[in-house]
Write a structure and sequence with these properties.
Blueprint lengths: L1 H22 L5 H13 L3 H10 L4 H8 L6 H18 L9 H11 L3 E12 H13 L4 E6 L6 H15 L3 E6 L9 H9 L3 E4 L20 E4 L3 E5 L14 E8 L2 H16 L21 E8 L7 H12 L3 E5 L3 E2 L2 H12 L3 E7 L5 H16 L3 E5 L8 E4 L3 E5 L3 E2 H6 L2 E7 L1 H15 L2 E4 L1 H6 L2 H11 L6
Parallel strand pairs: 2-3, 3-4, 9-11, 10-15, 11-12
Antiparallel strand pairs: 1-7, 1-8, 2-5, 5-6, 6-7, 8-16, 9-13, 12-17, 13-14, 14-16
Helix pairs in contact: 1-2, 2-3, 5-6, 6-11, 7-8, 8-9, 11-12, 13-17
Membrane topology: Multi-pass membrane protein
Keywords: Cell membrane, Lipid biosynthesis, Lipid metabolism, Membrane, Phospholipid biosynthesis, Phospholipid metabolism, Repeat, Transferase, Transmembrane, Transmembrane helix
EC number: 2.7.8.-
Length: 477
């Protein structure tokens, strides 16, 4: 009898603790129910999983990120919002890249400044990206700002530190922000030569445990480099590689010059000032030089993160898909969308639009890959053309619409990227770049196999059940 009483008390305490744990911070309904089930059904293991995956950032840290001053950019955003509103109200031909609704959405959701006359180079190959990046770093004369998810201590990572150290000795201001989870193989001694030379290195939003941050969610997935305020890189490539993971040779990276560099610089400043306990940076003309208006590309740089009230990148993706009249082609390492994105793609396919999704067969995250299968099955059944890339780990993140518009950057097409991690994306209004990305998509198709409705019907029942089960974890993956 007493054993039953003890068990009931334990169950009651576990249920009460689970409810308090989950509801002490706001989260969406799907994630709330998912975590309640995990904590109730797995009394001990569930709390361990929650410690790693479920804890949110403190309100203080989120408020700090949300209230960072944007160095005069907010005033420019306000004037652009007014100009777009006047243009839409007048019914006149829009000067805003032919997509005023998308421009306005991104201005409202993230204050994403629209910039023109940018020069953009698309880089699809890792070696090509590394060569271009190091060339620009060697040419730096005033400052180098790097924000990275993963920096590996391989030959490339070591060469990076050596080069940054050399530039710091020459008097160049060097600042590096890195994510402790993505760059978990780094030690403090890795950065010692750079720090001793006067460079500054900060882990992104470090905890009281310093580098030992046990939180797996809320990672800084942004990959940004700014050199002298004139050249910038952003996209999907990390710096270096490791034999412990599948090698990534195919991704999409941007090299930018022009007005958009200031947007990336402002993003770095906000993230640096949130992470750095001392030696914060402030506006100086040398960090924001006047851009050489030599390019022809119009674009918006959009940030995403858990501090936002709106999921800015996801809203941009939804609006971008809604613009489609002929084609929506998507590449992503993982495909775990929420219902709104899934419905948008199915609606487009049912409207006769050519919707294509390409994902890799081989990835570094088996559970995410399994959850991806569930959503691909839904899309195939709805008439979407799905391709599975065979030639390694395809890491490219891109949406191409009607050979006119392009979205690319760090976010995967999944819930984690839209809600849980800090991401950055470029929405590009340039037919030439969109067509170039489209050609690369077609080239990738030669290394991919089509996944059809016939293939879906041949799938073993056990495999389908596995995908269904993995999908249950989508709200907390």
């Amino acid at each position: 009898m007493w054993i039953s009483t003890i068990i009931l008390i334990i169950i009651g305490l576990n249920a009460a603790t689970a409810i308090v744990t989950v509801f002490r911070q706001p989260r969406d309904i799907a994630a709330t129910w998912a975590w309640l089930l995990v904590l109730l059904l797995l009394p001990v293991i569930g709390f361990i999983l929650y410690w790693f995956f479920g804890r949110k950032l403190s309100t203080r840290k989120l408020n700090s990120m949300a209230t960072q001053q944007r160095l005069g950019i907010d005033q420019m955003v306000a004037s652009q919002q007014e100009a777009v509103a006047v243009s839409l109200a007048s019914g006149a031909a829009s000067p805003f890249a032919g997509a005023p609704e998308l421009v306005r959405t991104l201005l409202q959701a993230d204050g994403a400044l629209i910039t023109t006359m940018n020069q953009v180079r698309l880089l699809f190959d890792r070696k090509e990206f590394t060569k271009a990046l190091f060339a620009d770093l060697r040419g730096a004369t005033h400052h180098i700002h790097i924000e990275a998810y993963t920096i590996e201590p391989d030959s490339v990572g070591k060469a990076l530190v050596q080069l940054l150290t050399k530039k710091a000795v020459q008097g160049v201001r060097v600042r590096v922000i890195y994510d402790t989870f993505g760059s978990h193989r780094l030690t403090r001694t890795f950065w010692r030569p750079l720090i001793d030379a006067g460079g500054q290195v900060e882990p992104f939003i470090a905890t009281r445990l310093a580098r030992a941050n046990l939180r797996i969610n809320f990672r800084n997935h942004r990959k940004v480099t700014v050199v002298d305020g004139r050249v910038a890189y952003m996209g999907g490539f990390d710096i270096g590689s490791t034999s412990r993971k599948l090698p990534i040779s195919r991704d999409t990276q941007l090299r930018l010059t022009g007005q958009a560099v200031a947007s990336l610089q402002a993003r770095f400043f906000m993230d640096w000032n949130t992470s750095a306990k001392i030696k914060k940076v402030h506006f100086q003309n040398a960090y924001f030089p006047l851009a050489d208006d030599t390019g022809r590309t119009t674009m918006q740089i959009v940030s995403g993160g858990p501090e936002q009230k709106l999921e800015a990148i996801k809203l941009g993706d939804l609006r971008l898909i809604a613009l489609a009249k002929h084609r929506v082609w998507i590449q992503s390492p993982f495909f775990v969308p929420d219902d709104s994105l899934l419905d948008a793609l199915i609606l487009a396919a049912h409207s006769g639009i050519d919707v294509r999704i390409m994902v890799p067969v081989h990835t570094n995250q088996p559970l995410m890959a399994k959850a991806t299968e569930f959503y691909l099955n839904r899309l195939v059944a709805a008439g979407v053309r799905v391709y599975r890339y065979q030639a390694g780990f395809l890491h490219s993140k891109a949406i191409i619409v009607d050979s006119r518009y392009l979205m690319t950057g760090s976010p995967n097409m999944d819930v984690r990227s839209f809600k849980l991690n800090f991401e950055i994306a470029a929405f590009i209004y340039d037919r030439t770049l969109a067509e170039l990305c489209e050609r690369q998509f077609k080239l990738d198709m030669t290394d991919a196999t089509a996944y059809t409705l016939t293939d879906l019907k041949k799938r073993p029942r056990l495999a389908l059940v596995g995908a269904d089960l993995a999908r249950l974890f989508a709200p907390i993956l």
